[in-house]
Amino acid sequence: MILNVSGRTDIIAFYSKWFIKRYQEGFIDVRNPIVPKLVSRINFKDVDLIVFCTKNPHPIIDFIPSINKPIIFQVTVTPYKSDIEPFVPDKHQVLDDIKNISQIIGKDNVYVRYDPIFLNDYYNLEYHYKAFKKLCSSLDGYITKIIISFIDDYKNVRKNMNILKIRNLTFNDFKNIGLNFSRIAKMHGMTIQTCSEYNNLAEYGFLVDDCVSKELALKLTGKKYPKWHSRNNKYCHCVSMVDIGSYNTCRHFCKYCYANYQEETILTNNSWHNPNSSLLIGELKEDDVIKERVK
């Protein structure tokens, strides 16, 4: 089993102590987001690989050496300011944390996500070129892989259009981003690829690969994993993973987020978090149906 920690919320940024406690106790419970009465119990002895996805890896760095599992870190670093990402920490601190993680688990196991890209009058092409160049220069020698994607039409994006003020990307926009980003990444010894995009920019030097490919999973675990079949994105061909997060619980409050689609409920959900519970949010109930998950 491969754990995704997490695409539904930033567990590392806000719930690291809970995760480490669950790891130490040997199991974790995950409530089904569609059928809440169904709870999957995951035993860490059945976990072959952990994929950490975060915008703030700092809270878990000291615990990494104690995790006796293969680890991949995907750290999102964007150039946006507090108008778009109100509570994401200082990016200089995040870059320093990426360097520390690279030295602990190796640079081949650390991915940086420049994700999502959107354009408006302020965050224009030149702004992105300068930010991306600075990012690659800062992490030269510490990472080898960068993943990008473009903003999607999520509910939260539509709700925040008065803040995002997005303009549609043209053919030339994609071309210029492809050529410039590919050139900059190559200068610093990095590969670059898109994530779940129709426009994979391969013609401009982008690598055509998955964020967590079958080949990578086999290399790290010695096991073959099937591809994940997404109902929402036909362009995602990553291996099957088990997400342990909960939607509407991330306190970064990014204006483009897909996982926070009811922002008004985030603080309420967060108030139900108990670091001693086996569930991320709330407690087990008498009528919950708990089933062990082994794959």
| Model regions low in confidence, pLDDT < 50 over at least 5 residues | none
Query: Which term fits the overall shape?
Result: globular
Q: Would you tell me the structural class of the helices and strands? A: alpha/beta
What would you report as the Rg, rounded to the nearest angstrom?
19 Å
Largest sheet: 7 strands, parallel
Topology order in helix (H) and strand (E) letters:
EHEEEEHEHEHHHEHEHE
Mean pLDDT: 95
CA distance, first residue to last residue: 5 Å
Question: What keywords describe this structure?
Answer:
295 residues, alpha/beta, seven-stranded parallel β-sheet, three-stranded mixed β-sheet
Helices and strands, with pairings:
Elements: E1 2-5, H1 11-25, E2 27-31, E3 38-43, E4 49-54, E5 71-76, H2 91-105, E6 110-117, H3 125-138, E7 145-150, H4 155-159, H5 161-164, H6 171-187, E8 191-194, H7 214-221, E9 242-243, H8 266-271, E10 289-293
Parallel strand pairs: 1-4, 1-9, 3-10, 4-5, 5-6, 6-7, 7-8
Antiparallel strand pairs: 2-3
